[in-house]
Design brief:
Blueprint (H helix, E strand, L loop, with lengths): L9 H11 L12 E6 L2 E7 L9 E5 L2 E8 L18 E8 L10 E5 L2 E7 L14 H6 L3
Antiparallel strand pairs: 1-2, 2-7, 3-4, 4-5, 6-7
Length: 144
Amino acid sequence: MAIIRTDPFREFDRLTQHLLNPGRGPRTLGMPMDAYRKEDAFLIQFDLPGVDAESIELTVEESVLTVKAERPAPPSDEKIERLVAERPHGTFTRQVLLGNNLDAEHVAAEYDAGVLTLSIPLAAQAKPRRIEVTRSDDKRQLGT
């Protein structure tokens, strides 16, 4: 498998948010993610609406890809009365465990319309390759 399909800490985040904000209902603080395989690469997409591309930070350490982004809170103004505040603000982090069949050295990232798309190519050793089969007659001719 190339990536972890679940985030074991997401439920802890939801529980913590629920305990700290009773009556507001559960809110997801993580980045929603989709992952696909397209030919010789894996594509991962993260929803990051309202995030400035300059605040997105990607790091790979060993086989862990970390995405970190910040969405600032709207400026507060005494003349504005906030009626509903459901959109989370602050720093968001998501980690993805990459399998050893992916080339973590050549990750490409593109951010467009609030969606961060990562393209991670298959490692050379993970790509299918053709192995030539020799005939036993050919070996005898070589002196074996």
